[in-house]
Amino acid sequence: MTDDDEYSAYSETRQRRIKVVAWVVIVSLILVGGGATVISLLFG
């Protein structure tokens, strides 16, 4: 294997990890924001 092959495999793994982290952050922001909205509506 050349350095390019190793870097390519590392790059793919890194990109997949970045996508997973990004989706987790987006979903958690939506859930927290939605939860805050519901609480503010309930308690005025």
Order of helices and strands: H
- The low-pLDDT segments are none
Question: How many strands?
Answer: 0
How confident is the prediction overall: mean pLDDT?
82
Cα end-to-end separation: 63 Å
Helix content: over 70%
Detailed description of the structure:
The chain crosses the membrane at residues 20-43. Keywords: Membrane, Transmembrane, Transmembrane helix. The protein is an all-alpha fold and 44 residues long. The chain has one helix at 3-43. The termini are far apart.
Explain the layout of strands and helices.
Layout: H1 3-43
Structural descriptors:
44 residues, mainly alpha, 93% helix, 0% strand, transmembrane helix, transmembrane, membrane
Structure summary:
This protein has 44 residues and is mainly alpha-helical. The protein is 93% helix and 0% strand.
